[in-house]
Amino acid sequence: MVFSKGNSIKQSLQAMEKTCGAWLVTGSNAVAEAMALAGFDWLLIDCEHAPNDFQTLLSQAQAIKAANCVCLARVPENNKTAIKRVLDIGVNGIVIPSISNKKEAIDAVAACKYPPLGCRGVASTITRAVSYGLDAGKYVKTANEDIAVILLIETIEAVDSIDSILTVEGIDAIFIGSADLSAEMGHIGDKDNEEVQFAISKVEKAAKNANIALGRTASSWKEAKSYYDKGYCFVSLGADAVILSRTASELVQNFRREIRGIKNGME
């Protein structure tokens, strides 16, 4: 059953326990399985920027569960139909992008919840989430409690509205999208800009005051460690394609340097 043992990531977020995860962007169920077997606490299938569709999401979710890892997904937009379809595939949590104000946060949470807490449609027999009808009774009664709802904060409006956003019931974590935020602030590719860092610190302070878990992506272990030290507990250590390309590149560069004697790409 999909939620037979509850949702460990939601429990960890509520307890402010530090977790590690990674993004999945290749669309490959074999890669998803390998990443899950590596021991991550959670894996997030990206359906916003990556070439994932509902079918690749399904196959990866199956592989991740088989490897006893928590499966999350990022939807392409704050849209109740898209959210419903992803949840019906049976993920343990959902990341919703571009939440900029309290109204959007309310709509996002509502789309993840069955009535009376929300507006999610009920499919009690035909989806993977309910084990194709074998677990419908339990799932529909516990899904509102089990599914982790994580909102992406990545706009100037969101930063300015962060205190009101965090008053919305049902938010389990917020994830800072520093790439989009820095771009909107006129500092594309420069998340370390002083103005961007000030905006991020405002979100961090608000989350701490509201006792809401914080998440962010890291480009290196050093960066990830700095986030953990600041109190983040939902940190992505990389993405499958990036980990693959960087590891492969390092191996090739070692070969060229130490075996062929090539330096800086030149004979």
Write the layout of secondary structure elements.
Blueprint: H1 8-14, E1 19-24, H2 29-37, E2 42-46, H3 54-66, E3 70-74, H4 80-88, E4 93-96, H5 102-112, H6 136-146, E5 148-153, H7 156-160, H8 162-165, E6 173-176, H9 178-184, H10 194-210, E7 213-217, H11 221-229, E8 234-239, H12 240-258
Parallel strand pairs: 1-2, 1-8, 2-3, 3-4, 4-5, 5-6, 6-7, 7-8
Helix pairs in contact: 2-3, 4-5
What does this structure look like?
- The chain has 267 residues and is α/β, with parallel strands linked by helices.
- It has a single domain (8-258), classed as TIM Barrel, CATH 3.20.20.60.
- Helix content is 45%, strand content 15%.
- It is built from twelve helices and eight strands.
- The protein has helices spanning 8-14, 29-37, 54-66, 80-88, 102-112, 136-146, 156-160, 162-165, 178-184, 194-210, 221-229, 240-258; strands at residues 19-24, 42-46, 70-74, 93-96, 148-153, 173-176, 213-217, 234-239.
- The chain has an eight-stranded parallel barrel, surrounded by eight helices.
- α3 (54-66) links the parallel β2 and β3.
- The longest helix is centred in the last third of the chain and has 19 residues, at 240-258.
- The N and C termini lie far apart (58 Å).
